[in-house]
Amino acid sequence: MYKSILKIVCCLILCWVVCVPTFCQAVQSMTPDESLEARQKMIAYSKQFVGVPYLYGGTSKSGMDCSGLIFTIANDAIGVKLPRSTSALYASVRIIKDSEKEPGDLVFFKTVGAKISHVGLYMGNNQFIHAASDGPNTGVIISSLNESYWKNTYAGAGRFLPAVGEQRLALAPETGSTDSGKQGGNPSPVVSDSLSPSGTEGSAATGSGARNFLSRVVLDGTLTGDWTFFSADRFHLLFRGVTLDAHARYSGGTLEPGFGLAFSYDPAMKVFQIPLLFSLTVAQGIRVYAGPVFSIGNPIEPDTVSDDSPSRVRGSIFPGVLGVCLQTPSLKAGKVNLSLVQDIRYTVFNDTEDGALPFVNSLAAGLVFSIGIRVTFPLSNFI
Fold first, then answer.
1. Is the Cβ–Cβ distance between 370 and 345 less than 8 Å?
2. What is the pLDDT of residues 80-96, one digit of tens each?
3. What is the pLDDT at residue 202?
């Protein structure tokens, strides 16, 4: 069993080191012709969503927000998984001059305060498709950058596909009439709809390489209560202490690598542990992690603390811990975001001679469920 766990841990670390750069290179290695085809597919695919109602966090024809529309178009039309929030989108693309934008690029707006809060897909002829949350027309609509409201809130264009070039720009699709506000009037400001697996909002893209890197770093801290529902000899709810962890991840790709440090005290086993966590955020709200664990104290098997002779065990440094964390959509609170998390992890314990524990005893000692709250904030909010 331990060999299987070791293989899983090695695979996770390998993915963390190899898969993310490989995916990023796949998009950038497109030829101009391939990029042109991808851009045409996105624009053609996007038109079917015109009229879909606005829904915060939505990514389907039942309802969409602005970043959800872009995420769905790129994912379904060309198989590219973009970040799920407006801020992360802005941080992950290459910011280009307004004169360089091509159909299929993204256009960004500052509709709420001084930060990027709205995004659309540029369609050519100064038109873009987006999901508006407020104004005389809401939901997925086609608007013009010439309209006074969008002209005044326009923040710039960003590119995630290679440039096509003027000679290949035969897109200029017929996008239909613009319909985002009353003739001669300004639509009401749209509400920021940034939403992601970790709940990030806000952005800071810069021309500096170091600053651009930092703008994609997302920090979070999590406090959980830990529990299990069985010990080696019976089923019952058992409090397994509390865990506090700090984590940083690099956002912007399909797989988002991260690193964290946790502090955990388990009164049922009389042990304090410090796991080092290498993680991958693999989908919206799903994080897998693994890493070595350093134990302080002489742990005992759960539910034996009151025995005359508690069953002693030994914590394993490596393999240490393997887990999956699920996160709910976040709620914004000032510069940070709050969300609930559910964590399932398995920590390896051996007997006092470093031999394997019986299966049930190993499961009772190592399998822990946690529920708690996470505070998330992009580093760009503070630099």
1. yes
2. 889 999 988 998 899 99
3. 34
Both tokens assigned to 325: 């964390």
Q: Cβ(113)–Cβ(175) under 8 Å?
A: no
Per annotation, catalytic residue among 19, 24, 66, 247? 66
Contacts of 15 (CB under 8 A, 6+ apart): 255, 280
Beta carbons within 8 Å of 167's beta carbon, 6+ residues apart: none
Nearest-CA neighbor of 176 among 141, 137, 140? Answer: 141
Q: How would you classify the pairing of strands 127-132 and 314-315? A: unpaired
Residues 6+ apart with CB under 8 A from 359: 1
Query: Any idea what DSSP says for residue 369?
Result: E
Q: Which of 365, 349, 352, 353 is nearest to 2 (CA)?
A: 349
Is 236 annotated in the active site? no
Q: Is 24 a catalytic residue?
A: no
Cα 44–Cα 49–Cα 52 angle in degrees, nearest 5: 170
Burial class of residue 4 (count of CB atoms within 10 Å of its CB; 0-12, 13-18, 19+):
exposed
pTM over cut 0.70: no
Active site residue 66: yes
